Amino acid sequence: ETRVWGCSCSPQRGALQLPWPGAVPAGGQVRGHAAGGAPAKPRSYWQYLRRHVLPPPRPPYQRVCQAGDPVLRLAAAAVEPARVASPEVQSLVRALVRVMRRLPCLGLSAPQLGVPLRVFVAEFPERLHLAHSPSLREARQMAPFPLKVFVNPAMRVLDSRLVSFPEGCESVAGFAACVPRYQAVQVSGLNEAGEAVSWQASGWAARILQHEMDHLQGILYIDKMESRTFVNTRWMELNE
């Protein structure tokens, strides 16, 4: 996701049938703490009881997966063109749009909802565009655009000049950093109806497209950021 600041259970419990290849069950962990962080916070009694009464949620989730979730580091699989019209893919697209608009954010990829497929949505409505000052909109080349849905997208660089501006991501919630991105790109793929679509974008729209394309390769903006610009977006509030 780009910010401007920028499984069904079988009758035998524990045998998970994941509806998407490579999906990770809710609460799934990579054992061994390979990243060197602190161990996961233990579940409360009520969380433990709930998990033994209700099945775990299945992707696409209604919340965004956070950095550390293995699904965010997978290279997403292509969707068979014949499956674009399937109930599963249509439900995925609806979930992406619903969560994107609820947050709100400007783009969201399928891996961020726990589904490792090459699908993303993007939208920059007028109300979010006007929430920024005219000077900032001009400096960052922001322009509103309607909902875009891409299935199996491929990207071509149209202008290789690198421009660095702050970005955030709902999968790295509460943080932001400057990220260099190409000035203009073209993304081609299928829309939610299975029709071929292509979009040439520059400025902020191009940044959004590159951010979402990275998600489909298991890449987060923190992999490309200018590390000394990395900030907690609430640092001033926390110092008060």
TrEMBL record:
<dbReference type="GO" id="GO:0046872">
    <property type="term" value="F:metal ion binding"/>
</dbReference>
<dbReference type="Pfam" id="PF01327">
    <property type="entry name" value="Pep_deformylase"/>
</dbReference>
<dbReference type="InterPro" id="IPR023635">
    <property type="entry name" value="Peptide_deformylase"/>
</dbReference>
<dbReference type="GO" id="GO:0042586">
    <property type="term" value="F:peptide deformylase activity"/>
</dbReference>
<comment type="function">
    <text>Removes the formyl group from the N-terminal Met of newly synthesized proteins.</text>
</comment>
<keyword id="KW-0648">Protein biosynthesis</keyword>
<protein>
    <recommendedName>
        <fullName>Peptide deformylase</fullName>
        <ecNumber>3.5.1.88</ecNumber>
    </recommendedName>
</protein>
<dbReference type="GO" id="GO:0006412">
    <property type="term" value="P:translation"/>
</dbReference>
<comment type="similarity">
    <text>Belongs to the polypeptide deformylase family.</text>
</comment>
<dbReference type="GO" id="GO:0005739">
    <property type="term" value="C:mitochondrion"/>
</dbReference>
<dbReference type="InterPro" id="IPR036821">
    <property type="entry name" value="Peptide_deformylase_sf"/>
</dbReference>
<keyword id="KW-0378">Hydrolase</keyword>
<keyword id="KW-0479">Metal-binding</keyword>
